[in-house]
Write a structure and sequence with these properties.
alpha+beta, 9 helices, WD40/YVTN_repeat-like_dom_sf, Apc4-like_WD40_dom, coiled coil, WD repeat, WD repeat-containing protein 91 homolog
């Protein structure tokens, strides 16, 4: 019964969601009557033998039998239908017998008057003699009817009806809706097992990393000892063969090299405690490194993008229907993702070939395919306004520089209308502006912040469509930018690995900073991935991407070290936080996306 109630709630929820009010009303009416009684044998027997027959509710009895005949005709073999027809005739005769035993010959006459024609036409049994029974003085003594008045016949009928319904209900194929509850329980057990295995795997990976680090240190120390020994031998040999010695500046230079080398050997990463994980789930659908991953506005859905040219929509909570799960093929590298802020209905996707796709997760199709100008093909970032039906795209022209940022070229910021799907305006950036790498709205959508490859932060008034201020924030390119939780500060993440929190009340004032360059790729690295960061719902924890298999989580406005995530199999290339819960996303160069729920 629990499965049945759960399935009924799912149907009711779907009808409400689609606005099928008339269908919902009819559905509720059907549930109240529930002719089939949820296919429970005892309830059906009580309905027949304790209600319909004793209370002379012949219309309801005929309707119930008709319902089951139709059900059997559409789902079972003809032999079962024939058997049920015989049971149907016996039940109707039992109704007649009970009416006569209760001295209600009027009910018998009424029965044959209303249903007599149907009995003569459709019944497999011969009812001819029974039309005379209301007028037989003592039918219980008549040889034609005597058997039907016996207790043995009634008990046999009752048992036959029970056995028949038990047999067909046990053979009934359960609808998919009724299997959902069982599948959810099975899925929960599997998730629990996966969580335990992931934790065990993480522990083993951490142990392996520790052993590999120790091994590298031993090899490095062995190399240093060998190098020092060779240098000493060579110096001794030269001093013996020649009275010349190294000049003072050469000796100093050699000494400095050794110090640098030794420093490199003994320097260790800052110690970070591992996060306390309540649950972790891994998605393995992509075939290339992850470029972006984002929670939806409600946090119920996840979108991830990969260098393989696909975007995927996932659900990680068993209570959330998986009907929105989808794979979107773009055919080219996906550079940006963002969800519509007011609902989970639309996902915007920006690519490297001047395309912006709007995906409707309910309809499971692209509802609009926009194109930026050919001069700006790389859609580096997309952000939806939290208030108005607009979004802004940051596109780059492309160039021919020596590293990733130099290759981005010039910038274009375009404001788009999400109702007409047309460009509204282009925000002014000046002549040949450096590429914009990241954009973000404040809480009311009136201010847009943009970061550039020249280290500048630009602020725009969206109502006027003009730049209102800006300042040089980094000596290098800026990869990511975020408004602080109280809207009085803004975070910037530079390509040099430096993170700053800037005051918006005292422009240029740094409120908090961290140097996470040890977690970052060199800009000219051929395997470079764009740096990203994300703040949790309270604005107290900052998660950043990492060239390591673990990502650091910094405590904002705190001098404590922070935490480190459980390890992936490769560097972490994309991050995000749940909008309300202590749950974060990590995408990796190992092609996986992980959802990690922290202990409170």
């Amino acid at each position: 019964m629990e499965k049945m109630h759960y399935a009924e709630e799912l149907v009711r929820e779907f009808l409400v969601f689609r606005g099928f009010t008339n269908t919902l009303e009819a559905y509720e009416t059907e549930l109240r009557t529930d002719v089939g009684k949820g296919f429970q044998v005892d309830k059906i027997l009580d309905l027949i033998f304790s209600l319909y027959v004793p209370k002379f509710q012949i219309d309801k009895l005929v309707a119930l039998l008709g319902f089951f005949k139709h059900y059997l005709s559409s789902s079972f073999e003809t032999t079962l239908v024939s058997t049920f027809s015989k049971l149907e005739a016996s039940l109707l005769r039992f109704y007649v017998v009970h009416a006569l035993q209760s001295n209600r010959r009027d009910k018998v006459v009424e029965f044959f008057t209303v249903h007599g024609p149907d009995l003569l036409q459709s019944s497999q049994e011969d009812w001819t003699q029974w039309f005379a029974i209301p007028y037989v003085k003592n039918p219980q003594l008549d040889p034609e009817f005597r058997i039907f008045f016996s207790k043995e016949w009634y008990q046999a009928l009752h048992l036959s009806v029970r056995n028949f319904f038990s047999e067909i209900f046990n053979a009934t194929r359960l609808p998919a809706l009724l299997k959902i509850s069982s599948e959810m329980n099975a899925t929960s057990l599997l998730k629990r097992d996966i969580t335990q295995l992931n934790i065990k795997l993480s522990e083993l990976q951490a142990l392996l990393n520790e052993k590999e680090t120790q091994l590298r240190q031993f090899k490095s120390m062995e190399g240093n000892i060998s190098s020092s020994s060779n240098l000493h031998e060579e110096s001794t040999h030269m001093s013996k063969d020649s009275p010349e010695t190294f000049p003072q500046e050469v000796q100093t230079e050699i000494g400095q090299d050794l110090v640098v080398e030794n420093d490199g050997d003994v320097s260790r990463e800052e110690d970070f405690d591992e996060v306390n994980v309540e649950h972790q789930e891994t998605f393995l659908g992509h075939t290339s490194p992850i470029s972006r991953c984002r929670f939806s506005a409600s946090g119920n859905n996840i979108a991830s993008a990969s260098l393989d040219g696909t975007a995927r929509i996932w659900t990680y909570d068993a209570s959330t229907p998986a009907s929105r799960n989808a794979t979107i093929y773009c055919g080219t590298e996906i550079l940006s993702l963002d969800w519509e802020c007011k609902s989970d209905r639309l996902l915007l996707i920006g690519t490297s070939d001047a395309c912006i796709k709007a995906w409707n997760v309910d309809a499971k199709r692209v509802v609009c395919d926009l194109n930026t100008t050919e001069a700006f093909p790389s859609v580096l970032d997309i952000k939806c306004s939290p208030v108005e039906p607009i979004f802004v795209s940051a596109a780059a022209s492309g160039g021919s520089g020596s590293n990733y940022f130099d290759n981005l070229g010039f910038a274009s910021l375009t404001v788009w209308n999400m109702k007409t799907w047309k460009a509204m305006t282009v925000l002014p950036l000046g002549e040949d502006p450096p590429a914009i790498t990241s954009i973000c709205f404040n809480h009311n959508g009136k201010i847009l912040a943009a970061s550039a490859v020249d280290g500048m932060i630009h602020m725009f008034d969206m109502s006027a469509g003009l730049q209102i201020t800006g300042w040089p924030a980094h000596d290098s390119s800026i990869s990511s930018i975020l408004f602080g939780p109280d809207e009085t500060s803004i975070f910037s993440f530079g390509s040099d690995g430096k993170i700053f929190e800037w005051s918006l009340q005292n422009q240029g004032q740094i409120l908090w900073s961290r140097d996470c360059s040890r977690f970052c790729y060199p800009v000219n690295d051929s395997n470079y991935y764009r740096r990203d960061m994300a703040l949790d719902a309270n604005g107290r924890r900052l998660l950043v991407t990492s060239s390591s298999v673990r990502a650091p989580i910094y405590q904002v406005q705190d001098h404590l070290n922070g935490w480190r995530t459980l390890p992936h199999g490769a560097p972490i290339t994309a991050v995000d936080w749940h909008p309300t819960l202590p749950i974060f996303l990590t995408g990796s160069a190992d092609n996986s996306v992980r959802v990690t729920s922290l202990l409170s």
